[in-house]
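Dear colleagues,

As part of the handover before I leave the project, I'm documenting each prediction I ran so the next person doesn't have to rerun anything. This entry is a single chain, and its sequence is reproduced below.
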Amino acid sequence: MTTQSQANDSVFSSLPLSKGLLTNLTTLGYKQMTPIQAKTLPLMLEGKDVIGQGKTGSGKTAAFGLALLHKLQVQRFRVQSVVLCPTRELADQVALEIRKLARAIHNIKVLTLCGGTPFGPQIGSLEHGAHIIVGTPGRVEEHVFKGTLRLDDVNMLVLDEADRMLEMGFQAALDNIIGRIPTKRQTLLFSATYPEKIAKISENIMNSPTLIEVKGSENNTNISQHFYKVENDVHRLEALQLLLLDCQACSSVVFCNTKKETQEVADSLAAEGFSVVALHGDLEQRDREQTLLRFANKSAAILVATDVAARGLDIEAVDLVINYHIARDSEVHVHRVGRTGRAGNLGKALSLFSDKESYKLALLEDYLEKVIKAEQLPDDSVRQSPPLQAQMATIQIDGGKKQKLRPGDILGALTGDKGIQGKLVGKINVFDNKAYVAVDKTVLNAALKKLSKGKMKGRNFKVRHLGSTGR
């Protein structure tokens, strides 16, 4: 294996991409490549196997997305590229990014295959054909075994967040899928960390790969980190509340190490009046989707999550990250902290630890190459300030793409004929049979009335307000 360390500050126009791809990149505002893009794209466009090590938000999705679109032959209506991701949320984000990058190329079909959704409709979509499959290992493996997905024409394989796929027990599924893909292919592997298991799998499935590493320090210079010592679990929860009251951040992510603890912390914060939602693997898929959506559209101020559930989470402008416990792995700590301070914004990361976690703290000191000193927690006077509430509320509409509903229809119904002001309408998300719109809390009742009594596409739709706390 070779290692390339020297980055360059190239612009996308310096790459041998098609005119359509370059024009679309300009339209999207993509000019300067991120470090991982500048290091990996030239190699990937040459057809080389690449291992890219970098955290979420480094631009890796656009990097491998451009590489597979560059290689794709649209006229060959066969599955030519497979992208495997650990979670449905990440797969959806990856598919969305690829579709965005492919806007200038007509008739490209990107299909997502993930668990938690009905199997039948996916078979129907596969029968109509696709160029690119983005999915989770378990569901892709199921389609391969049942013969509904053929991989004979695949010439590019991408393993995204490979470390998490192995952590989640997908090794056997990966082996089964890769075993059905022609050996004469290009393989790209992206991972936030580079444990021994990743090195081993790369030896077995890749051809003389180049390892590209983007250090976390390249991206975390605008994040201030603070550490606080707690005595026990009761004190830990009190400390969390004090920090949240003191910071009054519009958007906070609290990381817990277990699913059980995640729900318990969220329930405790909700009981104290905080605007909070929980995200972990025990939730039903629908609840997970709604939780992510409500946090992203600012209908909840705090997201309490496990690392696996939050993997691939790409939320704009997270103001504050709190580690309820120090992460089990130092690289995971850096990955968590990297959720804040995106796109040049200043970020803040706070970590709680007890004497029992001193060994993890020592490892983290070595990793960060700095001495960690505990700071004083805010005093009880901050309790005079009420918990910061979310600015927005989410309305669910029982209709979506299959009912020909578009974001413009929803916006028009809200703002037309003495409606609410457009500036009070937030994000609008339209799915197959459901749609969600965020509105300022001050106009929630007026918005519900406009949508329930007004017509969209010539008909009435049922609407309801998604609750502010809980599961």
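Residues 140 and 240 are 40 Å apart (CA to CA). The radius of gyration is 23 Å.

All the best with the project,
I.
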